[in-house]
Amino acid sequence: MTTAVRILVTGGAGFIGSHYVRTLLGPEGAGGVHVTVLDKLTYAGVAANLDAVRGSDRFAFVQGDICDAELVDKLVGRHDQIVHFAAETHVDRSLHAADAFVRTNVHGTQTLLDTALRYRPEVFVHVSTDEVYGSIAKGSWTEDAPLAPNSPYAATKASSDLLALACHRTHGVDVRITRCSNNYGPHHFPEKLIPLFVTNLLDGAEVPLYGDGLDVRDWLHVDDHVRGIELVRTGGRAGEVYHIGGGAELTNRELTRLLLDAVGADASLVRNVEDRKGHDRRYSLDWSKIRDDLEYRPRRGFEEALVETVAWYRDNRPWWEPLKKRAAPLDSPGPGVRA
Ligand code: NAD
Predict the structure, then answer these.
(1) What's the chain's average pLDDT?
(2) Which domain covers residue 258, as residue numbers?
(3) What value does the CA radius of gyration of the chain take, rounded to a whole number of Å?
(4) 28 and 159 in a common domain
(5) pLDDT tens by residue, 92-133
(6) What was the pLDDT predicted at 305?
(7) Same domain, 155 and 198
(8) Which of the four pLDDT bands, split at 50, 70 and 90, describes residue 74?
Protein backbone atom coordinates (compact mmCIF):
# COMPACT_ATOMS: atom_id res chain seq x y z
CA MET A 1 0.00 0.00 0.00
CA THR A 2 1.41 3.45 -0.93
CA THR A 3 1.31 6.04 1.84
CA ALA A 4 -0.60 9.28 1.31
CA VAL A 5 1.31 12.48 0.58
CA ARG A 6 0.62 14.79 3.53
CA ILE A 7 0.03 18.34 2.34
CA LEU A 8 -0.15 21.35 4.66
CA VAL A 9 -2.34 24.06 3.09
CA THR A 10 -2.12 27.48 4.73
CA GLY A 11 -5.05 29.86 4.28
CA GLY A 12 -7.27 26.95 3.23
CA ALA A 13 -10.45 28.56 4.55
CA GLY A 14 -10.16 31.50 2.16
CA PHE A 15 -11.48 31.85 -1.38
CA ILE A 16 -8.74 30.16 -3.41
CA GLY A 17 -7.28 27.94 -0.68
CA SER A 18 -10.66 26.34 0.05
CA HIS A 19 -11.29 25.79 -3.66
CA TYR A 20 -7.91 24.11 -3.86
CA VAL A 21 -8.68 21.81 -0.91
CA ARG A 22 -12.17 20.92 -2.15
CA THR A 23 -10.69 20.13 -5.57
CA LEU A 24 -7.79 18.10 -4.20
CA LEU A 25 -10.10 15.94 -2.07
CA GLY A 26 -12.88 15.83 -4.67
CA PRO A 27 -13.45 13.43 -7.58
CA GLU A 28 -11.00 15.30 -9.83
CA GLY A 29 -8.31 15.53 -7.17
CA ALA A 30 -4.91 13.88 -7.24
CA GLY A 31 -5.89 11.02 -4.90
CA GLY A 32 -3.36 9.60 -2.43
CA VAL A 33 -3.14 12.87 -0.49
CA HIS A 34 -3.97 13.88 3.06
CA VAL A 35 -4.62 17.58 3.61
CA THR A 36 -4.25 19.65 6.76
CA VAL A 37 -5.50 23.23 6.58
CA LEU A 38 -3.80 25.79 8.82
CA ASP A 39 -5.92 28.94 8.91
CA LYS A 40 -6.27 31.75 11.45
CA LEU A 41 -9.89 32.40 10.40
CA THR A 42 -9.45 36.14 10.10
CA TYR A 43 -12.47 38.15 8.90
CA ALA A 44 -11.70 36.69 5.42
CA GLY A 45 -11.51 33.06 6.52
CA VAL A 46 -14.79 31.14 6.31
CA ALA A 47 -14.93 27.77 8.08
CA ALA A 48 -18.04 26.82 6.06
CA ASN A 49 -15.95 26.95 2.87
CA LEU A 50 -14.58 23.59 3.99
CA ASP A 51 -17.90 21.93 4.86
CA ALA A 52 -17.74 19.74 1.74
CA VAL A 53 -14.54 18.02 2.95
CA ARG A 54 -14.96 18.18 6.72
CA GLY A 55 -16.20 14.58 6.94
CA SER A 56 -13.29 13.16 4.94
CA ASP A 57 -10.73 11.01 6.78
CA ARG A 58 -8.13 12.61 4.49
CA PHE A 59 -8.78 16.10 5.91
CA ALA A 60 -7.85 17.92 9.12
CA PHE A 61 -8.29 21.53 10.18
CA VAL A 62 -6.11 23.51 12.57
CA GLN A 63 -7.07 27.03 13.54
CA GLY A 64 -3.85 28.97 14.01
CA ASP A 65 -1.49 31.66 12.82
CA ILE A 66 1.35 31.16 10.33
CA CYS A 67 3.37 33.59 12.50
CA ASP A 68 3.18 31.14 15.43
CA ALA A 69 6.62 29.51 15.07
CA GLU A 70 5.93 26.71 17.57
CA LEU A 71 2.68 25.65 15.90
CA VAL A 72 4.18 25.94 12.42
CA ASP A 73 7.14 23.81 13.50
CA LYS A 74 4.84 21.09 14.79
CA LEU A 75 2.77 21.04 11.61
CA VAL A 76 5.52 21.35 9.00
CA GLY A 77 7.40 18.53 10.73
CA ARG A 78 4.45 16.20 10.12
CA HIS A 79 3.86 17.03 6.44
CA ASP A 80 5.58 16.18 3.17
CA GLN A 81 4.58 19.25 1.17
CA ILE A 82 3.33 22.82 1.76
CA VAL A 83 0.99 24.90 -0.38
CA HIS A 84 0.98 28.42 1.03
CA PHE A 85 -2.06 30.64 0.38
CA ALA A 86 -2.44 32.43 3.74
CA ALA A 87 -2.25 36.19 3.36
CA GLU A 88 -3.96 39.48 3.98
CA THR A 89 -5.30 40.07 0.48
CA HIS A 90 -7.46 43.17 0.19
CA VAL A 91 -5.52 46.00 -1.49
CA ASP A 92 -7.83 48.73 -0.16
CA ARG A 93 -7.28 47.61 3.43
CA SER A 94 -3.52 47.76 2.89
CA LEU A 95 -3.87 51.43 1.93
CA HIS A 96 -5.41 52.15 5.34
CA ALA A 97 -3.32 49.91 7.58
CA ALA A 98 -0.42 47.87 6.27
CA ASP A 99 0.77 46.31 9.56
CA ALA A 100 -1.30 43.14 9.29
CA PHE A 101 -0.07 42.71 5.70
CA VAL A 102 3.57 42.96 6.73
CA ARG A 103 2.99 40.63 9.66
CA THR A 104 1.20 37.82 7.83
CA ASN A 105 2.53 38.15 4.29
CA VAL A 106 6.18 38.80 5.15
CA HIS A 107 6.80 37.56 8.69
CA GLY A 108 4.33 34.67 8.35
CA THR A 109 5.90 33.50 5.09
CA GLN A 110 9.40 33.72 6.61
CA THR A 111 8.21 31.67 9.60
CA LEU A 112 7.10 28.94 7.18
CA LEU A 113 10.37 29.18 5.23
CA ASP A 114 12.51 28.96 8.39
CA THR A 115 10.63 25.84 9.35
CA ALA A 116 10.92 24.41 5.84
CA LEU A 117 14.66 24.85 6.16
CA ARG A 118 14.62 22.58 9.22
CA TYR A 119 12.36 19.86 7.80
CA ARG A 120 13.07 20.14 4.05
CA PRO A 121 9.59 19.33 2.69
CA GLU A 122 9.54 17.75 -0.76
CA VAL A 123 7.80 20.80 -2.21
CA PHE A 124 6.84 24.28 -0.97
CA VAL A 125 4.47 26.10 -3.33
CA HIS A 126 4.24 29.82 -2.58
CA VAL A 127 1.10 31.36 -4.11
CA SER A 128 1.63 34.93 -5.29
CA THR A 129 0.20 37.55 -7.61
CA ASP A 130 0.76 39.55 -10.80
CA GLU A 131 0.52 42.70 -8.66
CA VAL A 132 4.18 42.30 -7.64
CA TYR A 133 5.21 43.71 -11.05
CA GLY A 134 3.36 47.04 -10.74
CA SER A 135 1.58 48.19 -13.89
CA ILE A 136 2.28 47.57 -17.59
CA ALA A 137 0.93 49.75 -20.44
CA LYS A 138 1.56 47.31 -23.31
CA GLY A 139 2.65 43.69 -23.69
CA SER A 140 2.91 41.18 -20.85
CA TRP A 141 5.37 40.35 -18.07
CA THR A 142 7.49 37.24 -18.26
CA GLU A 143 8.61 35.56 -15.03
CA ASP A 144 11.96 37.40 -15.02
CA ALA A 145 10.43 40.90 -15.15
CA PRO A 146 11.63 43.18 -12.33
CA LEU A 147 9.36 43.46 -9.29
CA ALA A 148 7.97 47.01 -8.93
CA PRO A 149 4.96 46.79 -6.61
CA ASN A 150 2.89 49.90 -5.91
CA SER A 151 0.38 49.08 -3.15
CA PRO A 152 1.46 47.97 0.34
CA TYR A 153 -0.33 44.64 -0.36
CA ALA A 154 1.72 44.09 -3.51
CA ALA A 155 4.93 45.20 -1.74
CA THR A 156 4.42 42.57 0.97
CA LYS A 157 3.71 39.87 -1.63
CA ALA A 158 6.84 40.88 -3.57
CA SER A 159 8.85 40.72 -0.32
CA SER A 160 7.55 37.24 0.41
CA ASP A 161 8.38 36.12 -3.15
CA LEU A 162 11.96 37.35 -2.72
CA LEU A 163 12.28 35.62 0.65
CA ALA A 164 10.93 32.40 -0.87
CA LEU A 165 13.42 32.58 -3.74
CA ALA A 166 16.24 33.41 -1.31
CA CYS A 167 15.37 30.29 0.70
CA HIS A 168 15.81 28.21 -2.44
CA ARG A 169 18.93 29.98 -3.71
CA THR A 170 20.71 30.09 -0.37
CA HIS A 171 19.61 26.83 1.22
CA GLY A 172 18.40 24.70 -1.69
CA VAL A 173 14.86 24.27 -0.31
CA ASP A 174 12.44 23.21 -3.07
CA VAL A 175 10.33 26.37 -3.28
CA ARG A 176 8.15 27.04 -6.36
CA ILE A 177 6.27 30.29 -6.88
CA THR A 178 3.02 30.84 -8.78
CA ARG A 179 1.85 34.32 -9.81
CA CYS A 180 -1.67 34.58 -11.12
CA SER A 181 -4.02 37.21 -12.46
CA ASN A 182 -7.35 38.27 -10.89
CA ASN A 183 -9.43 35.30 -9.77
CA TYR A 184 -13.20 34.96 -9.79
CA GLY A 185 -15.65 32.23 -8.84
CA PRO A 186 -17.78 31.03 -5.92
CA HIS A 187 -16.85 31.69 -2.24
CA HIS A 188 -15.01 34.94 -3.10
CA PHE A 189 -15.17 37.32 -0.15
CA PRO A 190 -17.78 39.99 -0.99
CA GLU A 191 -15.41 42.95 -0.65
CA LYS A 192 -13.55 42.12 -3.90
CA LEU A 193 -14.74 43.57 -7.19
CA ILE A 194 -16.84 40.78 -8.73
CA PRO A 195 -18.59 39.50 -5.58
CA LEU A 196 -19.03 43.05 -4.24
CA PHE A 197 -20.67 44.22 -7.47
CA VAL A 198 -22.80 41.09 -7.88
CA THR A 199 -24.08 41.11 -4.29
CA ASN A 200 -24.77 44.87 -4.38
CA LEU A 201 -26.67 44.48 -7.67
CA LEU A 202 -28.65 41.53 -6.32
CA ASP A 203 -29.72 43.88 -3.50
CA GLY A 204 -30.57 46.65 -5.98
CA ALA A 205 -27.70 48.75 -4.53
CA GLU A 206 -25.16 50.93 -6.35
CA VAL A 207 -21.74 49.67 -7.40
CA PRO A 208 -18.69 51.94 -6.98
CA LEU A 209 -16.53 52.07 -10.12
CA TYR A 210 -13.08 53.53 -9.56
CA GLY A 211 -11.85 56.46 -11.71
CA ASP A 212 -12.61 56.29 -15.43
CA GLY A 213 -13.25 52.52 -15.26
CA LEU A 214 -10.56 51.86 -17.87
CA ASP A 215 -8.20 49.87 -15.66
CA VAL A 216 -7.48 46.53 -17.26
CA ARG A 217 -7.35 43.14 -15.54
CA ASP A 218 -7.02 39.58 -16.83
CA TRP A 219 -9.66 37.35 -15.23
CA LEU A 220 -8.86 33.79 -14.19
CA HIS A 221 -11.50 31.34 -13.00
CA VAL A 222 -10.51 29.81 -9.67
CA ASP A 223 -10.89 26.29 -11.22
CA ASP A 224 -8.16 27.13 -13.71
CA HIS A 225 -5.99 28.70 -11.01
CA VAL A 226 -6.07 25.65 -8.75
CA ARG A 227 -5.37 23.39 -11.72
CA GLY A 228 -2.31 25.51 -12.51
CA ILE A 229 -1.14 25.29 -8.89
CA GLU A 230 -1.54 21.50 -8.97
CA LEU A 231 0.54 21.31 -12.15
CA VAL A 232 3.27 23.31 -10.42
CA ARG A 233 3.07 21.24 -7.22
CA THR A 234 3.30 17.95 -9.09
CA GLY A 235 5.45 18.84 -12.10
CA GLY A 236 7.14 22.20 -11.51
CA ARG A 237 10.83 22.75 -10.81
CA ALA A 238 12.51 24.01 -7.65
CA GLY A 239 13.33 27.73 -7.59
CA GLU A 240 11.10 28.51 -10.59
CA VAL A 241 8.32 31.08 -10.94
CA TYR A 242 5.23 30.18 -13.01
CA HIS A 243 2.59 32.59 -14.27
CA ILE A 244 -1.03 31.40 -14.32
CA GLY A 245 -3.27 33.53 -16.55
CA GLY A 246 -6.90 33.37 -17.59
CA GLY A 247 -6.83 34.87 -21.10
CA ALA A 248 -9.77 37.22 -20.42
CA GLU A 249 -8.48 40.80 -20.45
CA LEU A 250 -11.18 43.44 -19.82
CA THR A 251 -11.53 46.99 -18.57
CA ASN A 252 -13.44 47.34 -15.30
CA ARG A 253 -16.10 49.22 -17.28
CA GLU A 254 -16.53 46.26 -19.68
CA LEU A 255 -16.66 43.86 -16.74
CA THR A 256 -19.27 46.01 -15.00
CA ARG A 257 -21.41 45.94 -18.16
CA LEU A 258 -21.29 42.12 -18.22
CA LEU A 259 -22.22 41.96 -14.53
CA LEU A 260 -25.17 44.33 -15.01
CA ASP A 261 -26.39 42.12 -17.87
CA ALA A 262 -25.92 38.90 -15.90
CA VAL A 263 -27.89 40.23 -12.92
CA GLY A 264 -30.45 42.01 -15.11
CA ALA A 265 -29.70 45.46 -13.63
CA ASP A 266 -29.32 48.77 -15.45
CA ALA A 267 -26.43 51.22 -15.69
CA SER A 268 -28.06 53.77 -13.34
CA LEU A 269 -26.67 51.65 -10.47
CA VAL A 270 -23.07 52.42 -11.45
CA ARG A 271 -21.57 55.18 -9.29
CA ASN A 272 -18.26 56.62 -10.49
CA VAL A 273 -16.05 57.22 -7.47
CA GLU A 274 -12.66 58.83 -6.96
CA ASP A 275 -9.85 56.55 -8.14
CA ARG A 276 -7.96 54.34 -5.69
CA LYS A 277 -4.65 55.88 -4.60
CA GLY A 278 -1.78 54.53 -6.67
CA HIS A 279 -4.18 52.41 -8.73
CA ASP A 280 -2.32 50.15 -11.17
CA ARG A 281 -3.62 50.72 -14.71
CA ARG A 282 -3.07 47.33 -16.24
CA TYR A 283 -1.77 43.89 -15.29
CA SER A 284 -0.86 41.33 -17.93
CA LEU A 285 0.98 38.04 -17.53
CA ASP A 286 2.74 36.07 -20.24
CA TRP A 287 1.92 32.49 -19.18
CA SER A 288 3.64 30.66 -22.05
CA LYS A 289 6.09 29.00 -19.61
CA ILE A 290 3.45 27.00 -17.73
CA ARG A 291 1.69 26.31 -21.04
CA ASP A 292 4.86 24.93 -22.68
CA ASP A 293 6.44 23.20 -19.66
CA LEU A 294 3.38 21.84 -17.86
CA GLU A 295 0.66 21.90 -20.55
CA TYR A 296 -1.51 24.38 -18.66
CA ARG A 297 -4.47 25.88 -20.52
CA PRO A 298 -7.37 27.81 -18.98
CA ARG A 299 -10.50 25.74 -19.57
CA ARG A 300 -13.23 28.06 -18.34
CA GLY A 301 -14.69 30.42 -20.96
CA PHE A 302 -15.04 33.82 -19.29
CA GLU A 303 -18.55 34.95 -20.20
CA GLU A 304 -20.18 31.58 -19.46
CA ALA A 305 -18.26 31.10 -16.20
CA LEU A 306 -19.13 34.65 -15.14
CA VAL A 307 -22.86 33.96 -15.59
CA GLU A 308 -22.41 30.74 -13.59
CA THR A 309 -20.61 32.72 -10.87
CA VAL A 310 -23.42 35.28 -10.69
CA ALA A 311 -25.93 32.41 -10.37
CA TRP A 312 -23.90 31.00 -7.45
CA TYR A 313 -24.19 34.29 -5.52
CA ARG A 314 -27.90 34.49 -6.37
CA ASP A 315 -28.38 30.98 -4.95
CA ASN A 316 -26.10 31.38 -1.91
CA ARG A 317 -27.31 34.50 -0.13
CA PRO A 318 -26.93 32.83 3.32
CA TRP A 319 -23.20 32.44 2.56
CA TRP A 320 -22.44 36.08 1.69
CA GLU A 321 -24.95 38.16 3.66
CA PRO A 322 -23.29 37.63 7.07
CA LEU A 323 -19.84 38.21 5.55
CA LYS A 324 -20.81 41.61 4.20
CA LYS A 325 -21.89 42.60 7.70
CA ARG A 326 -18.83 41.25 9.46
CA ALA A 327 -16.10 42.82 7.26
CA ALA A 328 -14.89 46.00 8.97
CA PRO A 329 -16.00 48.96 6.83
CA LEU A 330 -13.42 50.98 4.97
CA ASP A 331 -13.69 54.73 5.13
CA SER A 332 -12.52 55.12 1.52
CA PRO A 333 -14.88 56.02 -1.29
CA GLY A 334 -16.05 52.84 -2.98
CA PRO A 335 -16.04 50.30 -0.17
CA GLY A 336 -13.49 47.78 -1.13
CA VAL A 337 -12.98 47.36 -4.83
CA ARG A 338 -10.03 45.13 -5.58
CA ALA A 339 -9.00 44.74 -9.15
P1 NAD B 1 -8.58 35.27 1.08
O2 NAD B 1 -8.44 36.62 1.70
O3 NAD B 1 -9.92 34.84 0.57
O4 NAD B 1 -8.10 34.15 2.11
C5 NAD B 1 -6.95 34.29 2.90
C6 NAD B 1 -7.00 33.22 3.99
O7 NAD B 1 -5.80 33.31 4.76
C8 NAD B 1 -8.18 33.39 4.95
O9 NAD B 1 -8.82 32.14 5.17
C10 NAD B 1 -7.53 33.88 6.25
O11 NAD B 1 -8.22 33.48 7.43
C12 NAD B 1 -6.15 33.23 6.15
N13 NAD B 1 -5.13 33.95 6.94
C14 NAD B 1 -4.88 35.29 6.93
N15 NAD B 1 -3.89 35.59 7.80
C16 NAD B 1 -3.48 34.40 8.34
C17 NAD B 1 -2.48 34.04 9.27
N18 NAD B 1 -1.69 34.97 9.85
N19 NAD B 1 -2.32 32.73 9.57
C20 NAD B 1 -3.12 31.78 9.02
N21 NAD B 1 -4.10 32.07 8.15
C22 NAD B 1 -4.28 33.36 7.79
O23 NAD B 1 -7.48 35.22 -0.07
P24 NAD B 1 -7.52 34.50 -1.50
O25 NAD B 1 -8.14 35.42 -2.49
O26 NAD B 1 -8.00 33.12 -1.35
O27 NAD B 1 -5.96 34.50 -1.84
C28 NAD B 1 -5.13 33.37 -1.52
C29 NAD B 1 -3.72 33.66 -2.00
O30 NAD B 1 -3.72 33.92 -3.40
C31 NAD B 1 -3.07 34.88 -1.34
O32 NAD B 1 -1.73 34.58 -1.05
C33 NAD B 1 -3.19 35.97 -2.40
O34 NAD B 1 -2.14 36.90 -2.26
C35 NAD B 1 -3.08 35.16 -3.68
N36 NAD B 1 -3.74 35.78 -4.84
C37 NAD B 1 -5.07 36.03 -4.87
C38 NAD B 1 -5.64 36.60 -6.01
C39 NAD B 1 -7.13 36.85 -6.14
O40 NAD B 1 -7.56 37.32 -7.20
N41 NAD B 1 -7.95 36.54 -5.15
C42 NAD B 1 -4.86 36.95 -7.09
C43 NAD B 1 -3.50 36.70 -7.02
C44 NAD B 1 -2.96 36.09 -5.90
Answers:
(1) 95
(2) 188-217+247-280+300-327
(3) 19
(4) yes
(5) 999 999 999 999 999 999 999 999 999 999 999 999 999 999
(6) 98
(7) no
(8) very high
User: Are 11 and 59 in the same domain?
Assistant: yes
Co-location of 115 and 259 in the same domain = no
What's the pLDDT score for residue 30?
A: 84
DSSP 8-state code for residue 44 = T
* Cα 55 to ligand 1 centre (Å): 24
Q: Is 280 in the pocket of ligand 1 (CB under 6 A)?
A: no
In a domain, 291, yes or no: no
For the segment 148-189, what is each residue's pLDDT rounded down to a tens digit? 999 999 999 999 999 999 999 999 999 999 999 999 999 999
Residues 58 and 298: beta-carbon distance below 8 Å: no
Does ligand 1 come within 6 angstroms of the Cβ of 158?
no
Residue 292 lies in a domain: no
Atom of ligand 1 nearest to the CA of 84: 32
User: In this structure, are 63 and 151 located in the same domain?
Assistant: yes
* 200 and 237 part of one domain: no
311 and 229 inside one domain: no
For ligand 1, the distance from its centroid to the CA atom of residue 291, given in whole angstroms, is 25
Catalytic residue numbers, as ranges? 130-131, 153
Per DSSP (E only), the strands in 29-131 are 33-39, 59-63, 81-84, 123-129
Q: How far is CA 44 from the centre of its chain?
A: 12
Is 208 a pocket residue for ligand 1 (Cβ < 6 Å)?
no
DSSP E strands in 175-310: the ranges are 175-180, 182-184, 207-210, 216-221, 241-244, 249-251, 270-273
245-303 per-position pLDDT tens digit: 999 999 999 999 999 999 999 999 999 988 888 889 999 999 999 999 999 999 999 99
Q: How far is the CA of 224 from the centre of ligand 1 (A)?
A: 17
Judge whether 271 and 209 are in contact, CB under 8 Å: yes
164: in domain:
yes
Q: Does one domain contain both 162 and 199? A: no
